[in-house]
C-alpha cells in the first residue's frame, strides 16, 4: 500500500467519499479539499482520480507520501 495526498479545488464532503475506505478528508481556508489515503495499486488510485474527474473536481496536486517497503509502486 502506498499513501497519497490528493488536493482538489472544491470543498468535497467526507460523505461523498465514503465509498473509498480508509480515506481522510480535510478542508482548508482557500477552498481546497485534501484527501489522504492508502491505495493497494495504481488502478485503485486511478479509480478515485477518475471518480473525482467525473464530479468535475479540479485536481490541484497529487503527491506520494510513503514509498512501499518493497520498492514497488
Give an overview of the whole structure:
The protein has a single domain (2-64), classed as Alpha-Beta Plaits, CATH 3.30.70. 19% of the residues lie in helices and 33% in strands. The protein contains one helix and four strands; from the N terminus they run βββαβ. It has a four-stranded antiparallel sheet with strand order 2-3-1-4, with helices on one face.
Core attributes:
73 residues; Alpha-Beta Plaits; 19% helix; globular; 33% strand; alpha+beta; four-stranded antiparallel sheet
Fraction of residues in β-strands = 25-35%
CATH architecture grouping: 2-Layer Sandwich
**Terminus-to-terminus distance:** 8 Å
Number of strands: 4
Give the low-pLDDT segments: none
Elements, N to C (H/E): EEEHE
Main β-sheet: number of strands, strand sense, barrel status?
A: 4 strands, antiparallel
CATH topology description: Alpha-Beta Plaits
Strand order within the widest beta sheet: 2-3-1-4
Categorize the overall geometry: globular
**What's the helix count?**
1
Q: Mean pLDDT score, rounded? A: 88
Domains (count): 1
- Work out the radius of gyration: 12 Å
Query: From the helix content, strand content and strand pairing, which structural class follows?
Result: alpha+beta
- CATH class call: Alpha Beta
Task: Bin the helical content.
Answer: 10-25%
Short note summarizing the structure:
With 73 residues, this protein is α+β, with helices and mostly antiparallel strands. It contains one helix and four strands; from the N terminus they run E-E-E-H-E. It has one domain: Alpha-Beta Plaits.
